[in-house]
Amino acid sequence: QMRYYIHIPLPEKLREVVRAVEEEYQGKSGSDPHITIIPPREIIEGRTEQELIEAIKLATKDSIMTKIIERRVGYFRNSAGDVQTVYIGIYKTPALSWLHDELARGISGILEPPTSDFADFKVPHITLATKLSPKRGLEAWVALRDESFFTSFWGNTFILLRKDVDDERWQEVRSFKID
Q1: Which of 25, 28, 114, 161 could lock 129 by a disulfide, CB 3.0 to 4.6 Å apart?
Q2: Chain segment 75-84, per-residue pLDDT in tens
Q3: Are the C-beta atoms of 68 and 152 separated by less than 8 Å?
């Protein structure tokens, strides 16, 4: 079953820094470093990728560029309470919230309803390393918690990606520019 998600790409220098951290702590990832706006979901049977693209265009026709501002390094725990994911938190600005809300409304009925804890966009972030063992998670947190990776950048693009069951990496379907 085809799955889709939407993210904001990072500027090249920041992408390289995040990728280096990611490779050091977790190894290669299935996608480039990014800010997830809509987490992966399956397309509803009978709906098409073209309908999804049109819905995204319509939902975001009035969107404005959003300033992405670094907050601080944080972490998510696994069910046992260990550090499993280390991330760069970003401020949930009104423009970023608006983009998420409009996209979530627009794709409703085309992509399956969300099952992820991150679907409500409570903690916008850039993942540095994930699926870490308890020991590796703690090491990553201690090493990275006081780091600053960027100050801010303009999020003027978001990307729709897809992945089939057999695909190793996410494939870009379409890039959308925000004016």
Answers
A1: 25
A2: 999 888 888 9
A3: yes
DSSP 14: H
DSSP per residue over 106-140, as a string?
A: HHBTTBPPP-STTTT-SS-EEEEE-S--HHHHHHH
Q: Report the DSSP pairing between strands 66-77 and 83-90.
A: antiparallel
Residues in Cβ contact with 166 at an 8 Å cutoff, skipping those fewer than 6 apart:
none
159, 36 Cβ separation under 8 angstroms: no
Alpha helices in the chain (DSSP H): 12-25, 49-59, 94-107, 134-144
DSSP-derived secondary structure letter, 158:
E
From the CA atom positions of the chain, what is the Rg in Å? 16
**49 CB neighbour count, 10 Å cutoff:** 15
Please state, rounded to an integer, the average pLDDT across all residues of the chain.
Answer: 93
Residue 174 CA to residue 179 CA, distance in Å, equals: 16
Distance of alpha carbon 83 from alpha carbon 79, whole angstroms: 10
Confidence of residue 61 (pLDDT cuts 50, 70, 90): very high
| pTM to 2 decimal places | 0.92
CA angle 37–20–154, rounded 5-degree value: 40
81-85, 117-121, 146-150, 175-179 — which is least confidently predicted?
A: 117-121
Q: Rounded CA gap, 119 and 115, in Å? A: 7
